[in-house]
Design goal:
By secondary structure, the protein is of the alpha/beta class. It has ten helices and 13 strands. The strands form three sheets. It has a six-stranded mixed beta sheet, sandwiched between helices. Strands 2-1-6-7 form a four-stranded parallel beta sheet, with helices on both faces. Strands 4-3-5 form a three-stranded antiparallel beta sheet. The chain binds heptadecanoic acid (X90).
Length: 277
């Protein structure tokens, strides 16, 4: 049996130990510079380029051909994309699947639209890996994942919505004031895979209190919880400490966002993907 996991780079994973894993990069375009969200991308240089650039910056999702290349020659591929509610990545992957399965009728691509991003995608990568290690076949894993994906959530604390608003991914009215004086916006990924803001307030301390309350409200108990931060390790450590204080332990890890999530979840933002009960 051979199973491969392919995700786009919104998962912030350049590598993953376990199953054969490939990350397919999104691109960040800053004037005449293009940052490819792959291993070795210089996120600090990207942020510096954004800071000093006056024009419009943008991002681009993988093309169907990018996806097909990543699928490779493995019989069964699980493909996890950033939310179709905010990106064309899922549609592109669907086109790729169609072309790939037409060319190789004995291969199969299972696409999971995360309706989310970052650490919630990591939960899916981990779970597929775990189920495959237990000996489940691809169809069984796919059935399991259809239920599993309904029982995970993403909560965010964003330090700015500028790039989301400028690229038409959130209402510009919502973006106003966020970032000034340490104003954070806390919310969750909605069922449709868009931003559902719930609280606006000042500073990480309040934001983290709201994140913990949101986790509780959505049935988090002691399951897996993965934290991604953009240049805010102190905030991530504080969130972890509050998870331990509130729920008894922290079953997960902390990592830094790579280029795509760093572009949209701007400096000092926090994301947590977690399992609900
Ligand atoms: O160019 C593209 O196709 C990529 C577009 C991606 C847009 C959204 C990225 C979001 C990154 C920000 C906050 C988390 C909220 C997620 C709600 C689903 C992270």
């Amino acid at each position: 049996m051979s199973i491969k996991i392919v995700s786009d780079s919104a998962a912030n994973l350049t590598e993953f130990s376990g199953l054969d894993f490939v990350s397919v990069p999104l691109h960040i375009i800053v004037g005449d510079k293009e940052f490819v969200d792959e291993s070795g991308v210089d996120v600090k240089a990207m942020q510096a380029a954004i800071d000093s650039f006056k024009g419009k910056t943008s991002t681009a999702c993988p093309s169907p051909q990018d996806w097909i290349t990543a699928f490779g020659d493995t019989e069964d591929v699980f493909c996890i994309t950033i939310t179709s509610g905010l990106s064309g990545s899922y549609n592109s992957a669907c086109t790729a699947k169609q072309m790939h399965e037409q060319e190789y009728p004995d291969r199969h691509v299972y696409i999971i639209d995360s309706l989310s991003t970052g650490p919630e995608m990591v939960l899916y990568v981990e779970k597929i890996n775990e189920l495959a290690a237990k000996g489940m076949n691809a169809a069984e894993i796919n059935d399991y994942m259809m239920k599993y994906t309904k029982n995970t959530r993403l909560c965010f604390s964003l330090a700015s919505l500028n790039n989301l608003a400028r690229n038409g991914r959130v209402n510009p009215i919502l973006a106003k004031g966020v970032g000034l004086l340490g104003i954070r916006i806390v919310g969750i990924a909605s069922e449709e895979g868009t931003l559902h803001p719930q609280h606006k307030g000042r500073g990480d301390k309040k934001a983290i209190e709201h994140m913990i309350a949101t986790m509780k409200e959505h049935g988090y108990k002691k399951g897996r919880a993965i934290i991604a931060h953009n240049d805010n390790l102190a905030g991530a450590e504080e969130l972890k400490a509050q998870i331990v204080a509130e729920f008894g332990k922290f079953n997960g890890f902390i990592h830094q966002t790579t280029a795509l999530c760093s572009y949209y979840a701007e400096r000092e933002s926090l994301l947590v993907g977690f399992e609900c009960e």
